[in-house]
TrEMBL record:
Pfam entry (one): FMN_bind
Full protein name: FMN-binding protein
Chain segments carrying region Disordered: 35-62, 146-183
GO CC aspect terms: membrane
GO molecular function, one term: FMN binding
PROSITE patterns for the chain: TAT
Biased composition regions of type Low complexity, renumbered to the chain: 35-60
Domain FMN-binding: 70-146, 192-268
Entries under InterPro entries matching the protein: FMN-bd, TAT_signal
Composition skew (Gly residues), residue ranges: 152-175
Length: 270
């Protein structure tokens, strides 16, 4: 009986040791997966937060600049949600006579094309060449404004004090990059029939709008100007330079227009 007690103690001590080891091993795996799961749950939440903020930006209504065409003014307004064009509409379009029919046919197609393309890279509507060109010009202006409003630095300087300033035009357009619109007026070009002066709007390094602020007036010049200037304006935007053709029957006006246009481009930095 005396020899059996030490053996029992050894057996009991061994069993207790084994039980303790098993208990420790059983607790450790339960703790690690829990901590791993907790660590893995944080990144998705953090990743979702900035996405929600980005989607909230870039929403609202933006109206583009009015584009002058041979048959009247065209101006486009966009509704943008989450950075996408959801609606396009012409708030101004040529009116009167045959223009009413052309506008009624062309504008709905242009509106739909703008939403589909999500850009100003849309086809002209057959039979409405001038209206389509004016629509695209105003549409591009609205898109540029929508992009500019997305950044704080671009929003403040798009058409503020730098529009006619002496030194801010060059540095503003070249330093900040795309989508910062500004207006530059060229020098006055003297022609045989009167002065010609051109003003352009530049955005993203491209001419988005051109207009003549001074043109020959009086007598036959009124008719020549009314016919030639809208064509020269459109040609300047299309070419993006002063390398444009003269309008037939308006040689002097065309030459003065090109001279003043080149002056405006030089001021804008080329």
């Amino acid at each position: 009986m005396r020899k059996s007690h030490p053996i029992r103690r050894v057996v009991l001590a061994g069993a207790a040791t084994v039980s303790g080891i098993v208990l420790l091993l059983s607790l450790k795996p339960a703790t690690d997966p829990a901590s791993a799961a907790a660590g893995g749950a944080v990144p998705p939440v953090a990743a979702q937060s900035p996405q929600g903020g980005a989607q909230a930006a870039g929403s609202g209504t933006i109206t583009g600049d009015a584009a002058q065409t041979q048959y009247g003014t065209v101006q486009v307004r966009l509704t943008v949600a989450n950075g996408k064009i959801t609606q396009a509409e012409a708030v101004q379009a040529p009116k009167g006579g045959q223009s009413d029919q052309v506008t009624a046919n062309a504008v709905p197609k242009l509106n739909q094309a703008a939403v589909t393309a999500q850009s100003a890279n849309i086809d002209a509507v057959s039979g409405a060449t001038y209206t389509s060109a004016g629509y695209k010009e105003s549409l591009q202006s609205a898109i540029d404004k929508a992009k500019a409003s997305g950044g704080s630095s671009q929003g403040s300087g798009s058409q503020g004090s730098g529009s006619q300033g002496s030194g801010s035009q060059g540095s503003g357009s070249q330093g900040s990059g795309a989508a910062q619109a500004r207006t530059v007026t060229g020098g006055v070009a003297q022609t045989q029939y009167g002065p010609v002066q051109v003003r352009i709007t530049v955005s993203g390094g491209k001419i988005t709008k051109a207009e003549a602020v001074q043109t020959p007036k009086g007598g036959q010049s009124d008719q020549v100007t009314a016919n030639a200037v809208p064509k020269l304006n459109q040609a300047a935007v299309a070419a993006g330079s002063a390398d444009i053709d003269a309008v037939s029957g308006a040689t002097y006006t065309s030459a003065g227009y090109k001279e003043s246009l080149q002056s405006a481009l030089d001021q804008a930095g080329g």
